[in-house]
Amino acid sequence: MTGTADPAAPPQQDRWGLVAVAGLLSFAALLDMNAVNLALPSIARDLAVPERTAQWAALAYQLPVVALLLPAGRWLDGVGLRAAVQPAVVGFAACGTAAALAPGAGWLIAARAGQGVFGALVFVLMPVVAARAVRPALRARALSVPATLGPLGAVSGPALGGPLLDAVGWRAVFLLALPVCAAALWTVRRAAPPGHGLHDGPASGSQSSPRPGSGTRLPPKPSPGPALADTALVGGAVAAVLLALTLSPGRFGLAVLVTSAAVLAAVWLRRPAGRAAVAVLSPVHGTVTALAAGVAGMQYLLALHLQRDAGVSATATGLTMLCFPLAMGLAGQAGGRLAGRLGARRTAVAGAAVTAAGLLLLLGGSGAPADSAWRLAVAGCGMGLYGGPVQALALQSAPPGRLGSAGSVVQLARSLGFAVGPALATAAAGAGGVRGGLAAAAACVGAAAVLLAVTGRNHT
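Given the sequence above, the corresponding structure tokens read:
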């Protein structure tokens, strides 16, 4: 491929329809995630299992997401947009339906694990589609669209999931994302012509991007063998950490699990995929993991506390919890605009600091719904300012043709935090009660703000 422009090629344009697809994917993913967290106490009661077992309805989803994000990113670097979106969205919807039909905990956990496989594709697609659809100068603004529609999906999760839990039961929660999945499929068919690739478009910075029918061949697909080995290593390491946090093993069991996680992670880091991930890794990814862990732990503990300890209905709990994503959605577009004026790093640092302040306010509150609502809104405003700019920080150093892999590393960092956060908060709550768990969540977010402020300037 040469750098000479094809005179027959149409002028490149920003494709905001594809940005809308990224937003719909974000909406569906967070709609499901927040509604399921709200349903965990009901699942434990209905299936007659301990709360730690019911928690795996969420963890079983996050585990394959973490394990498959990097292989998914490499796959997305060499396929067309339709070929990526269609199986991801259809599989996500089908496994959600299977979860709704689960007769027992084993079926439910297996269905959620399958949904996590397709969820890995969904999470990688969100930033990649948005970033590839527009010029680099508009990337922060484009990334703020899924960063805004995601919280709106999170708003819909508690708002719709709470009444559904009270009126129908937890099974209906797993069907909430089906209409959004259908809308995403319809939109991508209109916005992306057949053969359109994720590597195409003005964001590539090249005049020689392949066009349908141009004869340019996509990069060869990697062999599945190394990808499966990488998946097993990453998944095994994360599974060992989650089991250590949720099973409360004795000292010997804890030592075995921690040692296993360390060995598996070390082996993976010595492999080509691990070295490639390290090559695009920056301290920004550490802040993404820490902040996601703190927020996910807070959301899980607060939903459990309101329903189990305070005796609040699922509807009232959902209405309380939606204050966080609602505020996040309202602040999301402001985050994109501020990043254009003040810079992505400054905006992301400010957002992380406000989120930490909101969690500290929760720690000092009474725990009642009305008292928690405005404190959640403060934390949500910080997350809205933080979301788009921090993704732009993490993606801006990606080499040409590697945006899919770079986007998967960002989502790996976030999903690792989402997976570990609730388990870490549960372990802390076991020692210090709900306030101990919330203190651990606030500490994670505070550490993310400090790390981003200290080291982020080297990556702006």
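The radius of gyration is 21 Å. Try to locate this feature in the token string yourself.
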